[in-house]
Design goal:
Elements: H1 2-64, H2 85-97, E1 102-106, H3 113-126, E2 130-135, H4 141-144, H5 147-156, H6 161-173, H7 182-194, E3 204-209, H8 216-229, E4 237-243, H9 247-253, E5 262-266, H10 272-291, H11 304-314, H12 318-328, H13 337-346, H14 352-364, H15 371-386, H16 393-400, H17 407-418, E6 426-427, E7 444-445, H18 448-454, H19 468-482, H20 505-512, H21 515-529, H22 536-548, H23 550-559, H24 564-577, H25 581-593
Parallel strand pairs: 1-4, 1-5, 2-3, 3-4
Antiparallel strand pairs: 6-7
Helix pairs in contact: 1-6, 5-6, 5-7, 6-7, 7-8, 10-11, 10-12, 11-12, 12-14, 15-19, 16-17, 16-21, 19-21, 19-22, 21-24, 23-25, 24-25
Length: about 600
Amino acid sequence: MGASADRVAIIQLETVLATGHEVGLVSERQERSIQEQYRISQDLLAVSQRHQNVVLLAIDRLIDRLGTGDHGASKKPPCLDGTRSAILARITRWIEEGIWQGFCLTGLAGTGKSSIAASIAKREKTCSRLGAMFHFTRDDQARNKVAILVIARQLAFWQSGRLRSAIASAIEKDPDIAQMGPKDQFEKLILEPLQFIDSTAPTLVVILDAIDECDPVYASLLLRLVGEAFGKLPSAVKFFITTRGEPWLQKYYDKDPMKSHLEIYSLEDEKQELVDKDIELFLKEELPDLVGLLVEDASDWPGEEKRKALVRKSQGLFIFASTAVRLITDPNAERDPDEEINRFLSSDYHSHLDGIYGQILERACPKTISSKVLRLFRDVIGALVVSQEPINIHTLASLICPDESQLQSFTTSIRLKVFNYLQAVLVIPGVNDIEQAVDTHPIRFIHTSFVDYLTDTARCGSSLLVHLSEQHEHLAIACFRAMESLTQNICNLDPSLLNSEVEDLSQRIQERMPLGLQYACVHIAEHISQTAAGSAAIRSLVVGFAREKLIYWLESLSLMGRTHEGVTMADSIENWFKVGFFVCIMYAMSLIVR
């Protein structure tokens, strides 16, 4: 009995041990299985991450086709801290709480609309709500017409990955979308992708600043597209628009669908005392800094009484105040700042802004000026007014210099004899330092109201009055002169290669086609079309050009990726010329295609 019990115990022990061994084996197999599953999951994660990186890279490459998003950036500074508080607070409340999808800020030239837009953009970017901003500018209509592409690119890099993917998908589906019309671009790149914004997503703000600076046809179409998008877009998407109160724009605000979704506020409705207070604060901040060591005590210069007198003269126009500051503190002025401000305040202006512009031109071109320098002033100012894109000093000089061998000294003359006296109205990189001048940066008018003044015979009595048709003719002739240097295969390319196959094509273009020549090739038609009909000089140049340089011009457009614009330009010249120039163009283009 005892032996039997022992044997049973031994068998039970062996069974337990065997079972334990099997459990151990199972446990070991399970552990190996778990480790294998973990390794597989890590491999899958790595593959997924690599795939995601490939997808993101592909998306980035697709979005790169839209060009550079920075092109829409505003050159205007934001409002000085402490100024425009009421209107900035109103716009912020609309962004955060308003039921309207659009807000339109209107106002006269010089009332500070673009600075307000810049302040809103700065704040919304800090809050991660700025989806896109585009600042329209009158001196670069070609840039204005890619506004939709620039906005789409900026939207693609907003915080929503779904929005980015949607825009990339639209580009992948329509690779030539950059060449499509504005309506298709807006619908495919902005309207449809924005549908992917979740209803719970944070507010996304799109800013269209100074839309009145855009070509009326394009601006009207863009406003119509935005108006039709209201109601279709998620409520989180909001458009902030600034513009002068132009009648041709007003009709879009006054009717549906825009009217039902748009809040409109005019800066003329601001209380005058608030605006005056802001202008006084601006003067108090800016004047002491700018006069610096020019006066004995700059801390509160020029004192409260004169500061208030400047405020009264400004009459609510920030552009008047800022231009007055630059005029009074001009380092090239013959008088010291105290004499300058006294003279300025004692002047009797028939029109406040016109008066200050007149004083600037009077100082720049006194009656004692030589005819040679006066002609230089007229050529420079006229070219800047009618140029079709912002140009730097080298491009400007190469276009208007009558003698190429004198180009360097001519450029220096422009800087010393013209730009030195126009710092109150022009943005001129490095004007006070010839050696360090940033000559690659474009020269710009600080405010378009100065261009309005220069081109209005009823307002500008100066010898620098710009007659647009005459100036376009001058620049058209300059373009023809620049294009005399066009030759066959100007960039010395291997004829067996396509342009896209030439790795250093951009470098060759920069080396062999100066900026003045590039400008001439791209904008010659625009200047011809705005020249007075029947100009014998232009007619003769067009005929000679068609006979001798036409094929080389089209080849150059091809090198710059602007071939598609050739037909449009030809049509423009045809309308002016009223003869078979278009036939010549089409024949020449057929030769290139072959």
